[in-house]
Amino acid sequence: MPMTKPSDLRKLSAADLQKRVQDSKKELMELRFQASIGQLDKNHRVSEAKRAVARMLTVLGEKAKGIEVASEKPTRKSAPKPAALAAKKPSSRAKKADS
To answer: Fewer Cβ in 10 A, N or C end of the chain?
Structure first.
């Protein structure tokens, strides 16, 4: 199953999410079985499937509780640029010249 972003999952209905959770759990069960008998070449797929199920269940829980998640990250104010700081304080050469 391709990796799905939580923002994409939030666009789906609860019924669609439930269906995806069931499908992912079935896939996870098959992957675990393959891993136990040594047929699974890519062992990381088990942990990816577990994370996908957890992601979907988290979004389902958010929908059940009515939690709205901001779609964009808040922007941070950037620190002032070094040139702006230099313009605010006098240089050390100017202090020596005045003395």
So the answer is: C
